[in-house]
């Protein structure tokens, strides 16, 4: 049975969360950040459920030191502090996700399950994978493959998959937002929605081009897309090369987004034109039907033996002129 370490100084909260989790997981408790550090070092849990506001050492500092010690288990923060700023602090400290108090049992169980599955499915040493990918000519192949795939993309989801195919080849863990002027969808390389990632990506619009977050994280921020990388290599001779490759890739993403958006606009224009053309045809048919009815009425009032009177002739001319004006209006 997987072990979850609950870190909180409030006995009631600890008991509450233990009750939620105990049917599915083995639970252990630490009353503050310092105690949590010792327990993680001596017997690492599979996941940490971490409060933020605690005496002696808060959750941010504890998470940062846990990551500094090399531990990679998921950290799920929970707190009354649920603003975007607090969520970003949790992310920067090394957290994987955030849940606001009061905690809903179903949401908690779902997030814990998702984080544990994602952690088990992660590649081996991502740092080593990234370094190896950059150490030979395969890196150029990844980039060229991305450009080949991306220009065949017909929609934004297809484009996101092409980006993740490349980043996974480099051993990187990434999230992506594409700004399509409507929904601005977020994409995640493992298919699992991450609220902290999404909040950070949404906040990047208009920010710097390339930004570093702590030791391993970086954001590549272009006009129509932002890429969040959570495990950049730290080797001095590799991180610069990786940034160059990813900047080159983001240039390609920008071009592809422009292409996809233009294609969507063209398709919408064609649909609108077809709809307008249908309306025009229907209007002209109605116009002709009305004209025929009026002509029938006019001719029925005339004797077959009589020539067209001046008054009837004027009525006919007026009908034709009105029909022509109406047709011109519909064709404008």
UniProtKB/TrEMBL annotation:
<dbReference type="InterPro" id="IPR050595">
    <property type="entry name" value="Bact_response_regulator"/>
</dbReference>
<feature type="domain" description="Response regulatory">
    <location>
        <begin position="3"/>
        <end position="116"/>
    </location>
</feature>
<dbReference type="GO" id="GO:0000160">
    <property type="term" value="P:phosphorelay signal transduction system"/>
</dbReference>
<dbReference type="Pfam" id="PF00072">
    <property type="entry name" value="Response_reg"/>
</dbReference>
<protein>
    <recommendedName>
        <fullName>Response regulatory domain-containing protein</fullName>
    </recommendedName>
</protein>
<dbReference type="InterPro" id="IPR001789">
    <property type="entry name" value="Sig_transdc_resp-reg_receiver"/>
</dbReference>
<keyword id="KW-0597">Phosphoprotein</keyword>
<feature type="modified residue" description="4-aspartylphosphate">
    <location>
        <position position="51"/>
    </location>
</feature>
<dbReference type="InterPro" id="IPR011006">
    <property type="entry name" value="CheY-like_superfamily"/>
</dbReference>
